[in-house]
Amino acid sequence: MTPSDPKLLANIRIVLARTSHPGNIGAAARAMKTMGLSHLTLVDPAVFPNSQADAMASGAADVLENATVCTTLAEALAGTTLALGVSARRRDIVAEVLTPPEAAARLLGEAQAAPVALVFGNETSGLSNEELSLCQGLVTIPANPDYSSLNLAAAVQVLSYELRQAWLGRAAWPQPEIDAASGDEMEKFYVHLETALGELEFLNPGSPGKLMLKLRRLFSRTRLAKEEVNILRGILTAAQEAKAAPRNRNPQ
């Protein structure tokens, strides 16, 4: 693809998680459209649709009309192979921390092969550790350290601008190194992993605690390919079958 091809930008989702104020949704839609982005996904918004969102969107009403509304972040990330969370604070749950230009380059490179996402959290609390566990990296905007709180729509504008600048400034992007597993494929793997570890009595299935979050971070850091996920799930299935099989206590 070349930068003149809008299909590359069309593969980038802007995901707003648990948005409190509908005006911020509209302002974010406007910020997106000015930079050529159109795929807005909302996760459990407090109020949407809403007249305040329409008013703040100004000429970007089409972005709101075509927005996808999901109940969970996992649902919003279905089909993506790369999701980057945006936060002013570094969290231990995400291994890789990127600058906005680094994030833009990574997203555009991956968007050649599959949908990707930038994930923004709630205006007050940001992204939770559980939400960050669904992301493969973290993006931080180098704001004033004495006052780093950035309005949601302003943050969307900054990252959207970086994406457009990178898109305009490069004729070709390196192809993704692996045929990466999608977000929903990884979620199925994590469900399988937790189930298998419970059956193997490695963790308490009623209270998996922080172990699954640490395992998510481990596998997020390694960026699994589709084939690798299939291999790991095959190992888990074999372990489950071996655990369930009756033992022959009197071999002949």
What is the structure about, briefly put?
With 252 residues, this protein is an alpha/beta fold. It has helices at residues 7-10, 22-34, 51-57, 61-65, 73-76, 100-111, 129-132, 152-169, 183-199, 211-222, 226-244, and strands at 12-17, 39-43, 68-70, 82-86, 97-98, 116-120, 137-139.
Mean pLDDT: 86
CATH superfamily of the largest domain: SPOUT methyltransferase, trefoil knot domain
Summed up, the domain count is 2
Helix-and-strand structural type: alpha/beta
Strand content: 5-15%
Element order: H for helix, E for strand: HEHEHHEHEEHEHEHHHH
CATH class of the largest domain: Alpha Beta
Largest sheet: 7 strands, parallel
Based on CA atoms alone, the radius of gyration comes out at 20 Å
SSE arrangement:
Elements lengths: L6 H4 L1 E6 L4 H13 L4 E5 L7 H7 L3 H5 L2 E3 L2 H4 L5 E5 L10 E2 L1 H12 L4 E5 L8 H4 L4 E3 L12 H18 L13 H17 L11 H12 L3 H19 L8
Parallel strand pairs: 1-2, 1-6, 2-3, 4-6, 4-7, 5-7
Helix pairs in contact: 2-3, 2-8, 6-8, 9-11
Keywords:
about 250 residues; alpha/beta; Alpha/beta knot; Helicase, Ruva Protein, domain 3; 2 domains; seven-stranded parallel β-sheet; 11 helices; about 10% strand
Structure, described:
- The protein has 252 residues and is of the alpha/beta class.
- Helix content is 46%, strand content 12%.
- The chain has eleven helices and seven strands.
- The protein has helices at residues 7-10, 22-34, 51-57, 61-65, 73-76, 100-111, 129-132, 152-169, 183-199, 211-222, 226-244; strands at 12-17, 39-43, 68-70, 82-86, 97-98, 116-120, 137-139.
- It has a seven-stranded parallel beta sheet.
- Strand 1 (12-17), helix 2 and strand 2 (39-43) form a beta-alpha-beta unit.
- Helix 2 (22-34) packs parallel to helix 3 (51-57), helix 2 packs parallel to helix 8 (152-169) and helix 9 packs parallel to helix 11.
